[in-house]
């Protein structure tokens, strides 16, 4: 079967969320992306990571967790993009949609979060432990996940740039909360956005290996009402 690319609207509560789906011919798992504040599903960094995952046979879903109307308002107020509870709830809703609609088939689901999106991914993983099989954070703010960190039971990889000293400290603290399910890796010579040559490639390769390792056993969850 050939690869499938599509843009869909995913209904989460009363919020219609636009998302770009890419499903390889033989999809072994699907990874849902949560971008950071001020970004969108068109983030060139997340798109680049998604393309690497696709080459490994992983489907990808790049979604905007705010509706176009909300995003337009938020461009002025910058409030919703930092509402981790709202973003995590939306992300969990997309996980439920993937589990129910199965556009990629009966395959495991992973979450890839960048910056504040990583906090939303961890909160969503804690609330959907039966459906989320792996998490990767890129330059993330896992500290913003709050009490949910200690409730995460999903294998979680924290990737941080070696020059991003403040975020390294925050991730080290988060790692202590995650316990044995967490692993922290430093990408040498990288700043927060991994703009230095070759650093984003390292993120993509390590994320791909993590998801390939952990997205191996299909989950058969009961539908949530």
UniProtKB/TrEMBL annotation:
UniProt-recorded Gene Ontology molecular function terms: hydrolase activity
Enzyme class of the recorded protein, top EC level: hydrolase
InterPro entries per the UniProt record, alphabetical: AB_hydrolase_1, AB_hydrolase_fold, FrsA_esterase
Residue span(s) of domain AB hydrolase-1: 30-148
EC code(s) of this entry: 3.1.-.-
Record key words, sorted: Hydrolase
Pfam families: Abhydrolase_1
Family (UniProt): Belongs to the AB hydrolase superfamily. FUS2 hydrolase family.
PANTHER family cross-referenced by the UniProt entry: DIENELACTONE HYDROLASE DOMAIN-CONTAINING PROTEIN-RELATED, POLYKETIDE TRANSFERASE AF380
Name the record gives this protein: Dienelactone hydrolase family protein
């Amino acid at each position: 079967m050939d690869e499938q690319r599509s843009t869909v609207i995913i209904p989460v509560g009363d919020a219609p969320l636009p998302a770009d789906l890419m499903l390889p011919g033989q999809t072994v798992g699907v990874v849902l992306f949560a971008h950071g504040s001020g970004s969108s599903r068109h983030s060139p960094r997340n798109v680049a990571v998604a393309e690497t995952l696709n080459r490994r046979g992983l489907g990808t879903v790049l979604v905007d967790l705010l509706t176009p109307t909300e995003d337009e308002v938020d461009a002025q107020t910058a409030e919703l993009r930092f509402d981790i509870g709202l973003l995590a709830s939306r992300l969990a809703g997309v996980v439920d949609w993937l589990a129910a609609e199965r556009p990629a088939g009966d395959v495991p689901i992973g979450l890839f979060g960048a910056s504040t999106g990583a906090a939303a991914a961890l909160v969503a993983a804690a609330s959907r432990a039966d459906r989320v099989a792996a998490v990767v954070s890129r330059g993330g703010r896992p500290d913003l996940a709050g009490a949910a960190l200690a409730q995460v039971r999903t294998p979680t990889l924290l990737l941080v740039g070696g020059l991003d000293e403040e975020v390294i400290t925050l991730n080290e603290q988060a790692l202590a909360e995650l316990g044995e399910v967490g692993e922290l890796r430093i990408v040498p010579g990288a700043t927060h956005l991994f703009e230095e040559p070759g650093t984003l490639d390292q993120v993509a390769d390590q994320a791909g290996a993590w998801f390939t390792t952990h997205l191996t056993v299909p989950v058969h969850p009961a539908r949530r009402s």
